[in-house]
Amino acid sequence: MRRLITRNVEKERGAAGVMVALLMLVLIGAGAIAVDVGQIYAERAQLQNGADAGAIAVLDACHATPCTESEAEAVAQELADGNSNDGSSTVFEVDMSVPNKVTVRTTTRDGTSGAGFLRQMFSAALNAGPATVGAHATAALTPPGSGSGFPLAISDNCYNLSEATPTAPVQKISYKPGGTCTGPSGTQIPGGWGWLDQSSPCEATTEIGSNDIGSDPGNNPPSGCAAILLQWKATILAGGEVKVAFPIFDDATNQGQNGQFHIIGYATFKVWGWKFGNNHAYEFRNTATDPGMTSALACSAGQDRCVIGQFIKYETIGSFTGPPGAYLGTTIAHLIN
What we know:
This protein is of the alpha+beta class. It has two domains: about 20-120 and about 130-140, no CATH class; about 145-335, no CATH class. Helices cover about 25% and strands about 25% of the residues. The chain is built from five helices and 14 strands. The strands form three sheets. Strands 5, 6, 8, 9, 10, 11 and 12 form a seven-stranded mixed beta sheet that branches. Strands 1-2-3-14-13 form a five-stranded mixed beta sheet, with helices on one face. A two-stranded antiparallel sheet has the order 4-7.
């Protein structure tokens, strides 16, 4: 009976060692691939950040004053290097062939050796080749199509910035019923002269298109605006400039709280002075005796309300969603892919 269950131990000796060796090889290979994949993803993220920042920077630097190819590449290279952990990457293309659009393409460069591939790839032990990673980003300059800001809308009858000039003449925009710059039909919403429904204190969220923006009727500004107006005043008195992107409407309908404005775009207004109410923060440089003011620019006494300044061409950087609005001199640089 013992001969029937006796195993051939001599023939099986060493089999476990072979299996362990094979499993170790598999585990080492899997570990090497996992480490290398992590390194590739990290490199890709750094290159993408550099391409994103470079595209925005080139668009900002080269739109108003055209850049040469080498100047644009230098701008992109600085941002690409700054977003790399080893301070080094390669910008191998800056494409400015499409107006108001820039594409930047980046690729791997080792900060120590200058090699165009990733070093210390563990999978090289398995006879795998070196890895090179790339990224690209495109930034465009387009008119904004939505935004949040000071809750005041201005008629397109008041907008007078031509495409040929960077600034418009200084003007007074009055909102007292029967005053200047009324809506296209020559009338204004009774009881409401441009104030918008607020999404938060002294802020309205607006969007171009089919959505009409509700009015906040009354001759006084919405609550919560005093702090913002005091900031504007402090900036101007310190020699700075207050630039506000106002939503522009081409139609105003209904009355009072039911009034609505149809927003077509955004125009930046360099504010010189205002009268949004009486005394304190609600009045600043709105009389003929104030610096830079004249009788034509001064806001009338009593219940008249006005803002004084000039429309300007303005470019800014920020997020962007939705279709662009009408071009009214204000554009926003944003990534499109």
